[in-house]
Amino acid sequence: MRNLSYLxxxxxxxxxxxxxxxxxxxxxxxxxxxxxxxxxxxxxxTEIYYPAATAGDNVAISSGQFPILFxxxxxxxxxxxxxxxxxxxxxxxxxxxxxxxxxxxxxSHGEFGKDIAFLVGAMKAEGQNSSSSFFNSxxxxxxxxxxxxxxGAAFLxxxxxxxxxxxxxxxxxxxxxxxxxxxxxxxxPSLVLSGGNDCVTPPAQHQIPMYDSxxxxxxxxxxxxxGSHCQFANYNFNCYFGEGTCTPxxxxxxxxxQSTVASVLLPWLNYxxxxxCTAGTQFQNLLAAGSGITSQQNCTLACTGTNENKLxxxxxxxxxxxxxxxxxxxxENLKNVSIALRDASGKIIPVKFxxxxxxxxxxxxxxxxxxxxxxxxxxxxNPLSVLKLIITE
Length: 393
Fold this sequence. Notes:
There is one protein chain. It is built from 9 helices and 19 strands. It is an alpha/beta fold. It is globular and about 65 Å long. It is about 25% helix and about 30% strand. A hairpin with a 4-residue loop joins strand 14 and strand 15. The chain has helices at about 1-15, 85-90, 110-130, 150-155, 180-185, 205-215, 235-245, 255-275, 275-290; strands at about 25-35, 40-50, 55, 65-70, 95-100, 140-145, 165-170, 190-195, 220-225, 295, 315, 320, 325-330, 335-345, 350, 350-355, 360-365, 370-380, 385-390. A 10-stranded mixed sheet has the order 3-1-2-5-4-6-7-8-9-10, sandwiched between helices. A 5-stranded mixed sheet has the order 12-19-18-14-15, with no helix packed on it. Strands 11-13-17-16 form a 4-stranded antiparallel sheet, with no helix packed on it.
């Protein structure tokens, strides 16, 4: 099966490389464990794949800053079942982090979601740590992802870290606690991918209710015609054994399904995590063409030409800031930008603000002390940045 995976990777790579402006990288790999002190020093083991000049274990990461994708595995499936995913995404300038926890036959979905969320902050800290191999290599944008149980856990993770930029799932399964209910509290950009012939997590009971429940101002649902549940990953005995007991079965090959996933997923990620507006146009064209897929959206990934391939830098001053005073957000061309203030739980806190060309003045009247996050959003409802804010008495 390794030969099949390699052929699938070559096929995906040839499709993705049609974008001649994209730099491609070799794949580095590193194992690392993180400890969450807030959960009785819970150890979260991870497998990390990252852009490198030469392929191999523990090689140096390439220069630059790369968005991070945090991917949750399926029920009784190992991270290694998803090499077709990291082989498609990492060469295009993404770091992928796979938690290897909750692999038993009685996993805790809630803890798995917390693991994914914890790793978001942990990896961002690695980017600021001068002794880390990822120092100065971690971008501010990130996405939580996952397949099956891991897709449901990705929905659960968003409530634990409001700095997550976006969520994308593959054949997500409803979980306990309910990922469908968690979706109602998610406002970040969302992409829900489904197999049209998925008999393990039928779309009508799993992915469609998740999509319908999402509160995202921009959400997309893509169903792969004839696709199955297990074909989102490489061959895995546990998954395929379970899938073999139900109907309908897949009517397309694994390679066909995985190439469709890559062709849809990559431009969507580039649009939201790399601020590449031309990728949004590519994504919309794929959905409009409808080749092997059906889709629905509540938005359009528009390309205005004003932000193409450019990440806008913003700053807050003062920070920390005293409750009852004002806060100033500075950046370029803020006339078409809005903000949302969220507390540590992700709840939106109403604030009044006045917009000028290069600054936004925010009133903090009656805003209590604590940790907050300032979400900066473009006129097209695209997330531009998330900044941490501390309010003191």
